[in-house]
Amino acid sequence: MTSEYNAAQRLLHKIKQSVSEFELNNTGGNTNVVEAAVAQDLQTLSKGIAEYRILGRQESNERKRKTMLDRATSMADDHELLKRRFDKLKLRKNERENYTQERSELFQGGSGVALDTAITVDEDAFWGRSERALDGFIAQGMASLDNLREQRGLLEGTRRRLWNAGGTLGLSKSVITYINRRTAQDKIFLVA
After folding, report:
1. In contact, 96 and 26? CB cutoff 8 Å
2. How many CA atoms lie less than 13 Å away from 4 in the CB half-sphere?
3. Which of 9, 12, 73, 91 has an alpha carbon 20 to 30 Å from 119's alpha carbon atom?
């Protein structure tokens, strides 16, 4: 019974090393061989765990049965973790290969159709962004114009009140002329 367990543990250790090697050498040419070996070893380990579990259920000694089933569960958990990790690494490798292939096709011109489609999509995105930016500028300009109109109304009201107050308080004509000149300068400033 322990020989099956020891064989499964050796295989589990070998798979861990192979997955680590696959992770480190994910860009080398040797990765396909390592990938195939890890996939085969994971399948073999799965069968070994199933056989060990069957042997554990057939064990007559209750304590040994529990130990064997606990070991089988532990190995199955380790197997599942390694399988997930390996699947993620394979997916990352495939994504990297696809990216590299698409990038080289883009720079080499590819079939032309993909390049034309990419240009069309980029143009559409550019025009959409430009339209939104122009709409934003127009809205901002309209808001500024409304604000200036409101300020003009406030200034005219203030000017009228100053004229009335000036007439009532007897402000000198030179002060009123100065206020009028300043108002004219402000208008020139706002127009420019």
Report:
1. yes
2. 18
3. 91
Compute the 3-state secondary structure of the chain and give helix, strand, coil in percent, each to the nearest 5.
Answer: 90, 0, 10
33-71 pLDDT per residue, tens:
888 888 888 899 899 899 889 988 998 899 999 999 999
pTM greater than 0.85 (yes/no): no
Contact 44, 83 (CB under 8 A): no
**Alpha-carbon distance 81 to 78, whole Å?**
5
Token look-up 């004509």 returns 173
CA quadruple 35, 36, 42, 48: dihedral sign: negative
Evaluate whether 52 touches 65 at the Cβ level (below 8 Å): no
* Sequence-ordered list of residues with C-beta below 8 angstroms from that of 120, at least 6 positions apart, any chain: none
What type of residue sits at position 29? Answer: G
pLDDT at 4 > cutoff 90: no
